[in-house]
From TrEMBL:
InterPro entries: Nuclease_put_TT1808 (IPR012296), Restrct_endonuc-II-like (IPR011335), Uma2 (IPR008538). The keyword Hydrolase applies. Coiled coil: none annotated. This is Endonuclease, Uma2 family (Restriction endonuclease fold). Residues 22-183 form the Putative restriction endonuclease domain. It comes from Amycolatopsis xylanica. Keywords: Endonuclease, Hydrolase, Nuclease. GO terms for molecular function: endonuclease activity.
Length: 189
């Protein structure tokens, strides 16, 4: 496929995403299979997101924001995701011509795994976020086969993360540079 045809296909997907009539509370992502509708998260998911959001607000520099429902694109892979939380410099959002924002602007993405999106978060997004060189990917997985698990992926290179740290819920886990936060997971459920 030529670069022109590939770009036209991406632009068509992007227009469809931007123009989609999405039910309130839902969001759409561009995944391997095209545009996917993602239902609103449940109570436990929102409680975890709130705990992480509060912790991040105290850890990131003032010129960075912590965002929910922000679309980020990995153009090289023709993907567009809406992570549960994204940390990025505020200035990355001030360019009116960038919607969605390039994933490469993110300093951290957080995904809270649900049964309906487990494969996407564990495999597809892991690869895409590494490909976009996002420094830290925090995956919170209540449904891991070994028990509720928090995994920190960092040091991206060549489309994969070279550093992986994992801890069961109820412990503390360190989010490395550029975040520098010891995240307490005692309030996760």
């Amino acid at each position: 496929m030529s670069t022109v045809a590939r770009n036209e296909g991406w632009n068509a997907l992007l227009r469809s995403w931007q123009e989609a009539d999405i039910p309130e509370g839902w969001h759409a992502e561009v995944c391997e299979g095209g545009i996917t509708m993602v239902p609103p998260p449940g109570v436990d998911h929102n409680l975890i997101a709130g705990v992480v959001h509060r912790a991040l607000l105290g850890a990131v520099p003032r010129e960075w924001g912590v965002y929910q429902t922000l679309g980020i694109s990995v153009v090289g892979l023709r993907r567009l995701y809406v992570p549960d939380l994204v940390v990025m410099p505020v200035e990355a959002l001030t360019r009116a011509d960038l919607d969605p924002v390039p994933a490469s602007s993110a300093k951290l993405v957080v995904e809270i795994v649900s049964p309906s999106n487990a494969r996407v978060d564990r495999v597809e997004k892991l690869r895409a976020y590494a490909e976009a060189s996002i420094p830290v990917y925090l995956m919170i997985d209540r449904f891991d086969e070994h028990g509720p698990l928090v995994t920190v992926f960092s040091d991206p290179a060549d489309g994969h993360y070279r550093e992986i740290m994992a801890a069961l819920f109820g412990s503390r886990i360190e989010l490395p540079e550029p975040i520098n936060l010891k995240l307490d997971t005692n309030d996760f459920r």
